[in-house]
Amino acid sequence: MQTPVLHTARIKQIQKLTDTVYEFTFTFLDTMPMEFQAGQYGTVIIDGATRRQYSFCSDPKQAGTVSMVIDTKPNGPGSKYFLLRKVGDAIQMLAPLGRFIVAPSERRKVMIATGTGIAPIRSMILENVKTTPMTLYWGLRHETDVYWDAEFTALAKQYPTFAYHLVLSQPTVSVAWQTGHVTDMLEKGLVSGDADYYLCGNTHMIAEVQSYLLAHKVPAEQIKTELF
Fold first, then answer.
1. C-alpha atoms less than 13 angstroms from C-alpha of 61 in its C-beta half-sphere
2. Which among 223, 186, 203, 39 is positioned nearest to 119, based on CA atoms?
3. Which of 46, 74, 119, 128 could form a disulfide with 57 if both were Cys (CB 3.0 to 4.6 A apart)?
């Protein structure tokens, strides 16, 4: 695993995904390449005393750039920092960090995410979908929170071994997607001990899903978690 290095990155592109969620794409100004494994993150230096961690959401094989998802809804130091940034600005980033990565095995990978916890999961999917059977359960609250749906739907059509399930817990209008919680969808599916599970999102979801999987005899070493 690569040793983290303090990099200088330049903002190449800012894409607004929802009213509060943005995708920032960076290039790097230093000579040392920034290589990462799907699921890892970088620590952005906000100021001398403040740092914030953001997972990479792009394919590690995408040469020359990396992307992060920034949720500005919390309106904390990280949110305010990125809301003031523009294309061409340089930032300081310590990377790569984290051990939430895909473990080699022949088992299907089942990804369960809530909110922007989808960021490292997307990176895992983009890197592995061509070669590895995968299932994604992604939980959001409202229809206005949805992004990347067209991308995941297209991947599911292109690769028969990839299954995609989007579920909304609080839709305000009638929607074509499933409604409820990701845990509801998991109970409808086939929980198997012959799969590796990757959970990323809020504390409640992770605790509930982890307990459910363990109760259904999934070995603990086949459950990987990352809090968002």
1. 7
2. 39
3. 119
Q: Which long-range contacts (CB under 8 A, 24 or more apart) does 29-34 make?
A: 29/90, 32/5, 32/7, 34/5, 34/7, 34/9, 34/66, 34/93, 34/95, 34/96
Q: Which residues lie across from 178 on neighbouring strands?
A: 167
* Spatial separation of the C-alpha atoms in residues 69 and 190, rounded to whole Å: 30
Q: Indicate the fold that domain 5-97 takes in CATH.
A: Elongation Factor Tu (Ef-tu); domain 3 (2.40.30)
* Class of the CATH-defined domain 108-227: alpha beta
Question: What pLDDT is attached to residue 47?
Answer: 92
Closest Cα partner for 201 from 224, 180, 223, 227? 227
Percent pLDDT > 90 in the chain is 79
The answer to whether 178 and 189 have CB atoms below 8 angstroms apart is no
Q: What is the pTM of this model?
A: 0.94
Determine the 3-state secondary structure of 164 from DSSP: strand
Positive or negative, the Cα torsion across 45, 19, 164, 162? negative
Domain borders along the chain are 5-97, 108-227
